[in-house]
Every structure is written in C-alpha cells, then in structure tokens.
Amino acid sequence: DFSPSADFGSSLYFNNVKKAKVASGIAITVGNPFDYHAYYPNKKIYTDTYLPFTGRTPLRCTNVRTYISDTRYIEDSTVYAYDDRHNIKKITTLNSKGEKFSTEYVYNYEVGGTTVVGGAAPGSVLYNMTETGLEQVVSTERWKLGTGSNVFDQKLVDANVTTFNYQGGVLRTKGAYSFRSAEPFSYSAYTGLTMGGPAGNPYAQVINIYQGQVPNGFEKTTEIKIEDAKGNPLQTQLLGLESFKSMIWDMDKGKLL
C-alpha cells in the first residue's frame, strides 16, 4: 500500500546550512530556503553577554491588585527583608487604606548567645540553642507602623512566643504564649527601651517568658502534655478552650501525618 506523506521537519528547510562567526553589527543577507530571491531584508547580528550565576534569589516584594471593576482596583504591597543568616526577618505590608504593618520574626540567636548584648544568661535554653548552632523562631511580633521610620512610633498589635526545652541534643516544644491586650502597646512599653536612653536587648519579654515570668498583656495559650522520644508533640492542651489536640507522626520521616 502507498500512503502519501509529507516531511515538515526542520531538516527539510535547513539543508546545506553554513555556519560562520561574525562580528557584532555586521550586516548579513539570509536567503530563502528554496533558493528564490532573498526572503528576509538585510539583518544585523548583535551579541549580548550572558553571565551564568549561582546563589540565592530571595523574594523581595509583591504587589497584589484586586479589581472592583474594569478600571477600579485596590492594591496591597508586601516587602520582605532577611537577616545576615538569610532567614526571613521582616514582612512589611501596605494596604489599600494606606496602613502599614510589619511582622517581625525573632530567632534564638537574637535573644541569647555569646554575642548578644543583654541576652539570655549562659546555660539557659536560649543561650544553649544558639551556641549549638540552632536557628529557630522563638517569637513573632506584629507592629502597626507610624508615618516615619522611627521605631518608637510603632504600636504592638499582636505577638506570640514559643517556648522550647533543649536537652541531650533534642529540641522539644513546651508551649506558647500570646498577646491578649485589648489595647496596643507602645514600642517602649513592650521592649523597655526609651528614645535617647541606653541601648539594650529589645526582646527582654521573650527572656522573661522563658524564665517563667509572664509579661503584662500575655497569657499562656498552649501547653505540650505528651511528646515522643524525638521531641515531637503528641498531645497539646489548648488552654482556655478546655480541649486537647492530638498529633500522629511518621517515625521514619519525622513528619506530621
């Protein structure tokens, strides 16, 4: 049987192709693949330099538009900042009302360690976590920012502190504390620092909680009751709700099921 067919592969159109190295800006004439008159006008070849690179490409900012109609929209902008260890440090958002908020992540190496001024005492959990190389978020703070860049114009609207226990090379979560004040706290009221006053550690409240001293405006919200040998929580009490939460872990992969 004879079945008619046609070859539309690229090889049909690129027979007898000649390759040549040309300098940037040189005019060339590209002929028709069927040897008719020149199909393309004269073209000039320009080169560009591509430099491959390796490294980090962290997200810096996002802009989200929500359209109300074809021409009207509201826009929210988010800016991301990282610390010297490439961990996310701050997420600043500007909403359509012009309000600016900042969510800040506090790590153990900012609260305790040999290089932390006014930090947690040597031998404490926070100190030992840093000295053994751990990098763990121990607190999150949400601030409403002022119109300028002065931190003393900020107002604390939300905060959470997670407590850990670190023994025998195993990190265990103990519980969590949350900010429950009806009114925001000023920067000075929360950090204990004053404008023009001496420099200090702005995370004194985190240290207080780790020492068992619950700061004004905070309350304990969760407590780990049962954990496995690897430190994974198995049962958590939700304080104030009179309820418990149970968790099941994949012991081989260490993941929550």
Short description:
The protein is mainly β and 257 residues long.
Describe this structure in words.
With 257 residues, this protein is mainly beta. The chain has helices at 108-111, 125-131, 187-191, 204-210, and strands at residues 27-28, 43-44, 61-67, 73-82, 88-94, 100-107, 137-144, 155-167, 170-179, 185-186, 218-227, 233-238, 243-246, 249-250, 255-256. The strands form 3 sheets. Strands 3, 4, 5, 6, 7, 8, 9, 10, 11, 12 and 13 form an 11-stranded antiparallel beta sheet that branches. Strands 1-2 form a two-stranded antiparallel ribbon.
Helical segment tally?
4
Determine the strand fraction and express it as a percent band: 35-45%
Helix content: under 10%
Instruction: Please outline the major beta sheet.
Output: 11 strands, antiparallel
For the secondary structure, the number of strands is 15
- SSE order, as H and E? EEEEEEHHEEEEHHEEEEE
Structural class: mainly beta
Distance between the termini: 61 Å
Q: Compute the gyration radius: what is it?
A: 30 Å
Shape: globular
Instruction: Show unreliable segments.
Output: 1-18, 35-40
Query: Average pLDDT across residues?
Result: 84
Write the layout of secondary structure elements.
Layout: E1 27-28, E2 43-44, E3 61-67, E4 73-82, E5 88-94, E6 100-107, H1 108-111, H2 125-131, E7 137-144, E8 155-167, E9 170-179, E10 185-186, H3 187-191, H4 204-210, E11 218-227, E12 233-238, E13 243-246, E14 249-250, E15 255-256
Antiparallel strand pairs: 1-2, 3-4, 4-5, 5-6, 6-7, 7-8, 8-9, 8-10, 9-11, 11-12, 12-13, 14-15
